[in-house]
Amino acid sequence: MNIAVNTRFLLPDYLEGYGYFVYEVFKHLTHKYPEHHFIFIFDRAYDKQFIFSSNISPVVIGPPARHPLLWKFWYDIKIPAVLKRHKADVFVSADGLCSLATTVRQCLVLHDLAFIHYPGHIRRSHYIFYKRYVPKFLKKANAIATVSEFSKRDIANTYNVDPDKIDVVYSAAKEIFKPVSAAVKEQVKNEYTDGKEYFLYIGAIHPRKNLVNLLRAFSIFKKRQKSSFKLVLAGRLAWKYDSFIQSLKRYKYRDDVIMLGYLSEENLVRITASAYSLVYPSLLEGFGVPVIEAMKCCVPVITSLHSSMQEIAGNAALYADANNPDDIADKMMLVYKDEKLRDELIKKGDAASKQYSWQRTADLLWQCIQEAVV
Question: Is the dihedral of CA 275, 279, 282, 288 positive or negative?
């Protein structure tokens, strides 16, 4: 079988979200199924690290598809030609977009509907494109995958899609996320937080991640506890980050907030495993990979109600109303004060994280690919 894969998010030193998903899943699938041929379709020059198996043929078709007009051109003009030339049996696209102009069977991965629920958190041009075309993509795709039951219900209810057409393909965290020694924790804290304990947020600096409310919650925590705790933010500056940066400049405890930007995997593991607790108050997530990353590192998790995280973490996390800074702060204080609870969360989190692996994700997506071809 010739399996074409949208790999435009496989970017060196900038691997996030869709890119991680594609990298991990197809690293497993290409090795597990050497009898099949995989065509990796890039929209720019690729890094050789992404050609990790001999049954992969890389194809570059420009121009780089980074805004709606180029998306339309890339998916509906460029992609059909490549699929035809390489005699593809199926096209797999994990970024929520697919081709409306090909007769080749398609497997579409749509992670969430954040653009519907929080339209103000993305560029207007992107919102208009998604609103117009996502229903068409869902209709065109022969099989659909998403990363949680939460997202499956959301997609089915919002677009009246038959739930039987949607497979849940749970995401995962890399195996490199694991606990570190007390010596490493001490080293990390000395390096980044003047030796102080810290709460950690991992992810892009973006409105949907709810970081202004995280700052408010941290203020409440600091006022009540008079502690030396720091707040560490690890992630790149994404769209509409300006308002957050301006808020931070006026923030009373700005000297206790450390922004680390985008980190290498090795440093991200060290930072995660050395945290006192992860605080991940995102307004909406299809899955919430940082939650699993922290749990694999034996770090307790505080995250949001009313999204996929309750499904993913179960009773292994504390949940707060993302729109209520007082509630977030209450959970931070609970983790800080109650060592027994913190130990229980660590044990439950370690057990919960073992449910998720990229091998499992790859196997689930393979089933969905098979369904698309039939």
Answer: positive
Q: Which secondary structure element, helix H or strand E, spans residue 366, and what is its range? A: helix 358-373
Whether the full predicted model's pTM is greater than 0.85, yes or no, is yes
Query: What would the pLDDT profile of 293-332 be if each residue is shown by its tens digit?
Result: 999 999 999 999 988 999 999 999 999 999 999 999 999 9
Dump the DSSP string for 283-329: S--SS-HHHHHHHHTT--EEEESSSTHHHHHGGGSEEE-TT-HHHHH
Task: Specify whether the CB–CB gap between 90 and 3 falls below 8 A.
Answer: yes
Instruction: Tell me how far apart the alpha carbons of residues 99 and 199 are, in angstroms, rounded to a whole number.
Output: 42
Is the distance from CB of 26 to CB of 50 less than 8 angstroms? no
Give the Cα separation of 78 and 220 in Å (integer): 52
Give me the phi and psi of 318, to 5 degrees please. Answer: -95, 140
Cα–Cα nearest to 237, from 248, 227, 226? 248
CATH 3.40.50.2000 fits 182-353, yes or no: yes
Radius of gyration of the CA atoms of the chain, in A: 21
From the options 3.40.50.2000, 3.40.50.300, 1.10.10.10, 2.170.150.70, give the CATH code of 2-172+358-373.
3.40.50.2000
Sheet-wide strand order for 166-168: 56-60, 37-42, 2-6, 90-93, 105-109, 143-146, 166-168
